[in-house]
From TrEMBL:
InterPro entries: Epimerase_deHydtase, NAD(P)-bd_dom_sf, NAD(P)_epim/dehydratase. One of its GO terms (biological process) is L-threonine catabolic process. It comes from Marinisporobacter balticus. One of its GO terms (molecular function) is L-threonine 3-dehydrogenase activity. It comes from the Bacteria. Residues 4-240 form the NAD-dependent epimerase/dehydratase domain. CDD domains: TDH_SDR_e. Belongs to the NAD(P)-dependent epimerase/dehydratase family. This is L-threonine 3-dehydrogenase.
Length: 319
């Protein structure tokens, strides 16, 4: 990874990944791209930045060539709830963007990463300790995109020798850039609302368990997988990774340890609840641990302490 080209650089993952990679590999060696360019943004100011719509294959190729990219990190995509509301747009953006990025990687001989998700599983997948290799028949457009993406990335590896690698991320929790249009977003919103209003109304019901991970662990996982010795990789697209699994009551109880008068209410959104119900309760990351040494530092308690502290530092507190 000497010249790293990133799409979706202003998204929830991209914005933190760029800053960590610029610190590790040098500011000028990480080329950030996104569909918009907010001049005051730290990602725009700290190194090369280009406007790129990932459905524009020619521009993606031109830019990657101009910067002599040897690594493509493709992040631009719609999340699950938005994809369910706009399935055709999701197919065109998520799949069109991915195949364009893979083609650039093939043409320029780049190493390649794109995230998959717990959304790549469906109602017929074993729900607890979901194995690395198992049934994947998702019932959401997002899931269809993610499984297709996993297959396409493996195809580019076997057919063209592109060094594609990926992880199935769980819900990602972070304090820098909010996620948008995901099913697991409640687990981010809850921290903001707990600090601002001492209460939160959850659109996900009690007893709904989903895998989650704190952003620093997610960023480390991407870098570690990309740097892993390829001879150790039995799998490629994509590895199960997770740090914790909880339901809304458990995260609320953890927050209550720090904000005593915090109150949780429920107003379940049938669409996002339906998506959550189709996903695993907890996935098994053994393959990632064995093949490239994946390890998560943060559990629910440690993450909650850090989230509340960092959000307070950002001034997210109303009382
Ligand atoms: N966090 C994502 C979503 O909820 C899952 O990959 O859509």
């Amino acid at each position: 990874m000497k010249k790293i080209f990133v799409t979706g650089a202003l998204g929830q993952i991209g914005s933190e990944l760029i800053m960590k990679m610029r610190a590790n590999y040098g500011n000028d060696n990480v080329i950030a791209t996104d569909i918009r360019k907010p001049e005051e943004h730290i990602v725009v100011q700290s190194g090369p930045f280009e406007i790129l719509d990932v459905t524009d294959a020619e521009k993606m190729h031109t830019l990657a060539k101009k910067y002599e990219a040897d690594t493509m990190i493709h992040m631009a995509a719609l999340l699950s709830a938005t994809a369910e509301a706009k399935p055709l747009l999701a197919w065109n953006l998520n799949m069109g963007g991915l195949v364009n990025a893979l083609e650039v990687a093939r043409a320029l001989n780049c190493q390649f990463f794109t995230p998959s998700s717990i959304g790549a599983f469906g109602p017929s997948t074993p729900k607890d300790h979901t194995p690395q290799d198992t049934i994947q028949r998702p019932t959401t457009m997002y899931g269809v995109n993610k499984v297709s993406g996993e297959l396409l990335c493996d195809y580019y590896f076997y057919k063209f020798g592109v060094d594609t690698r990926g992880v199935r991320f769980p819900g990602l929790i972070s304090y820098t850039t909010p996620p948008g249009g995901g099913t697991t977003d409640y687990a981010v919103d809850i921290y903001y609302e707990a600090l601002k209003r001492r209460k939160y109304t959850s659109y996900i019901d009690r007893g709904t368990y989903m895998d989650m991970m704190y952003m620093p662990d997610a960023i480390n996982a991407i870098i570690q997988l990309m740097e892993a010795d390829p001879s150790r990789l039995q799998h490629r697209n994509a590895f199960n990774v997770t740090a914790m699994s909880f339901d809304p009551e458990e995260i609320a109880a953890e927050i209550k340890k720090h904000i005593k008068d915090f109150k949780m209410n429920y107003d379940v959104d049938p669409i996002r609840q339906g998506i959550a119900n189709s996903w695993p309760n907890s996935i098994d990351p053994t393959a990632a641990i064995e093949e490239w040494g994946f390890r998560a530092e943060y559990d629910l308690a440690k993450m909650t302490v850090d989230m509340l502290e960092k959000l307070k530092e950002k001034g997210i507190e109303n009382l």
